[in-house]
Amino acid sequence: MTALNQYQRLEAAGLWRETPQSQARDVIVSFGDATLMLTDPRSETPLTHWSLPAVTRLNPGRMPARYGPGEAGADEELEIDDDLMIAAISRIHRAIEAARPHPGRLRGGLMLGAAALMAALAVFWVPPALVRHAANVAPPAQRSEIGRTILAEIAKTTGNPCARPAGDMVRGKLAARLTGPDSRIEIVPARLRSALRLPGAITVIGEDLIRGQITPEVTAGHILAAQAVGVQNDPLLQALRFAGPRATFQLLTNGTLPPQSLAGYGESLLAGPVPRPDDEILLNYFTRAGIASEPYARSLDPTGEATLGLIEADPFRTAEPRPVLSEREWAVLQEICDQ
């Protein structure tokens, strides 16, 4: 085959996995007699031979290129980022395809059916999969940037987050105890009824959760509930679903969402129902934080009928929990939205 002869001396570095669970190994990729050879670069020992006509590109159009041997039940995978080797494999595949006999109408009908199937997959499966993939691979900095964008959208409805030096210190202390050292709690001058978890470990609460008869334990309970909901339902995934596949594709390729892709999302979050995590999951959060669950449960239903599980299984029903904040700290936090 002319195309194969042209690349007989071509070699490239690659990464080979014998099984999905195996550690990737460095290999040298070269062409044999109608085969693709993978060789150990240190010992020059051949590791495996793949039939060139059966080699399959697993991620067409994306880099680095990933290939499989194309055999039923084969778990091997090869990754190559050498443009010349990728082009060579593609050209040889085209030459092999051109040399094959091509039946007439039956083959055409099958090809049209396959094309229709691929089109259906592109419409109904690829966009949701793209969004899920983007949410899974987003780094912390990207999540934080999107979280700040959503916070700005929320602020268009509620007003800017409250900030006073003394109150900010208490906010930081509360976040460190409840949601982790790299998290933030933002308080907006509005009534939100609950806490909202945003991408980037940002939790938003309204002024209504620090005013009146509300206690620090109630506020903490709503923050923990939002954290539990965020673990079960990734807030970044929800945001990307709102932004749409096209904006998500730009996030994957350029690292940022289009400026207006989240316009209106803050208002949508505020208008939506308040999700409530499973009692068993939420009680674990209360236990780890050292906070009683009954005050939070009573804030949802003063009678306790709808939240009986949180009341009866309160991890501190017979023990004294550690105070969430001191009286002085709580008073300072309650004044954070004062002008």
Task: Write a structural description.
Keywords: Membrane, Transmembrane, Transmembrane helix. The chain crosses the membrane at residues 110-130. With 339 residues, the chain is α+β, with helices and mostly antiparallel strands. The chain has 2 domains: 2-100, Pleckstrin-homology domain (PH domain)/Phosphotyrosine-binding domain (PTB) (PH-domain like, Roll); 138-334, no CATH class. Helices cover 47% and strands 14% of the residues. The protein contains 14 helices and 10 strands. It has a 7-stranded antiparallel beta sheet, with helices on one face. Strands 8-10-9 form a 3-stranded mixed beta sheet. A hairpin with a 7-residue loop joins strand 5 (56-57) and strand 6. The radius of gyration is 28 Å and the shape is elongated. The protein starts with a helix and ends in a 5-residue tail after the last helix.
Helicity, in percent? Answer: 40-55%
Integer count of domains? 2
Principal-axis shape: elongated
Q: Which oligomerization state do the chains in this entry correspond to?
A: single chain
Low-pLDDT sequence parts: 119-126
How are helices and strands ordered from N to C?
Answer: HEEEEEEEHHHHHEEEHHHHHHHH
Class based on secondary structure composition and strand pairing: alpha+beta
Largest sheet: 7 strands, antiparallel
Topology:
Layout: H1 2-6, E1 11-17, E2 25-31, E3 35-39, E4 46-51, E5 56-57, E6 65-68, E7 77-80, H2 83-99, H3 105-124, H4 126-137, H5 140-158, H6 165-178, E8 184-188, E9 196-198, E10 202-206, H7 216-232, H8 235-243, H9 245-254, H10 265-271, H11 279-289, H12 294-300, H13 308-312, H14 327-334
Parallel strand pairs: 8-10
Antiparallel strand pairs: 1-2, 1-7, 2-3, 3-4, 5-6, 6-7, 9-10
